[in-house]
Amino acid sequence: MENLYNKTKFMLNKYKLSANKNLGQNFLINDEVVERIVDSADVNEEDLVIEIGPGLGNLTEYLLERAGKVIAIELDNRMIEILQDRFSLYNNFELLNEDVLKVDLDELIKNNKNEKIKRAKIVANLPYYITTPIIMKLLEEKLDIESITVMIQKEVADRLIAVPGSKLSGAITYCVYYYATAESVTIVENNSFIPEPAVDSEVIKLLIRKEHPVELEDESEFFKLIKVSFMQRRKTLINSIVNGGIVKNKEEAKQLFDDLDLDYNVRGETLTIEQFARMSNYLVAKKK
Ligand code: SAM
């Protein structure tokens, strides 16, 4: 704890910096947690690690010691010179001063894989204000990555790692499950950061699946159905899909539920991913 805590305080003083809350800046100062992240991401010299939001570089330093190459993407201009100074002696470091949501990650990975760098992994202490768009970008762009190991808000982690069809599931649970298996690595106390975040934190690891758990006739129709089903959580699924325009009217919805042997009163979060896949494939087949 001492080590990163002192370094962080020293750097904030030296560069006369304070954390920018609008950019979700909470710097990790707990060496044990950082080691845990790098260990669970299983980083080695054959890996390209893409780090989102390196900040002052506390996680980056550990990654650079273990990875073949680290590409860090940081939006805050103030961090760029600091990072360049701090890691000037590493020849496996590349820094992009960009908004991660606008970076062509597919191209970045393709351009960096070679005989020595065999696979890509995402490792980050994410800016919490854009956790969901970042995770969805990483999954939906079907990147050639092996895993995503990230610190996120615990409440969001609960949804991401829930089993679809269980109480905590939301639309994102089904999306994550379609692309990856998810596990909790560790829950992290608020005093592991400067400044302390107002919410609880958790590190999770998503391992990208080689095969999807369900077969879909049309992925975009499936995700549209999932989105609509969770738009109004207190409504029954039948009402949600009528209101969301998935079917024309209640009669059509009832026919669908009869054909799929579903109770009219079910709510979206009780359906398994297989049941949603069957519903989506049925609707796609009917449209043809
Ligand atoms: N990795 C550092 C650590 O663990 O101490 C900092 C993590 S802090 C929670 C999140 C970092 O993401 C900040 O450095 C912030 O400036 C950066 N960030 C915020 N929005 C970003 C974006 N759209 N693209 C890239 N980086 C971003």
Mind telling me which CATH architecture of the largest domain this is? 3-Layer(aba) Sandwich
Average predicted confidence as pLDDT: 96
β-strand percent reads 15-25%
Query: Under CATH, the topology of the largest domain is which?
Result: Rossmann fold
Under the CATH scheme, which class of the largest domain? Alpha Beta
Structural category is alpha/beta
Tally of separate domains = 2
Largest sheet: 7 strands, mixed
Order of H and E elements: HEHEHEHEHEHEHHEEEHHHH
Low-confidence region ranges: none
Shape: elongated
Strands of the largest sheet, in order across it?
4-3-2-5-6-9-7
List keywords for this structure.
single chain; 288 residues; alpha/beta; Rossmann fold; Helicase, Ruva Protein, domain 3; two-stranded antiparallel ribbon; 9 strands; elongated; binds S-adenosylmethionine
Descriptive report:
- With 288 residues, this protein is α/β, with parallel strands linked by helices.
- It has two domains: 4-208, Vaccinia Virus protein VP39 (Rossmann fold); 219-287, rRNA adenine dimethylase, C-terminal domain (Helicase, Ruva Protein, domain 3, Orthogonal Bundle).
- The chain contains twelve helices and nine strands.
- The chain has helices at residues 2-14, 31-41, 58-66, 77-86, 105-112, 131-140, 154-160, 171-179, 219-229, 237-243, 250-259, 273-287, and strands at residues 27-28, 47-52, 69-73, 93-96, 119-125, 147-153, 180-188, 193-194, 201-208.
- A seven-stranded mixed β-sheet has the order 4-3-2-5-6-9-7, sandwiched between helices. A two-stranded antiparallel sheet has the order 1-8.
- Helix 6 runs parallel beside helix 8, helix 9 (219-229) crosses helix 12 and helix 10 crosses helix 11 (250-259).
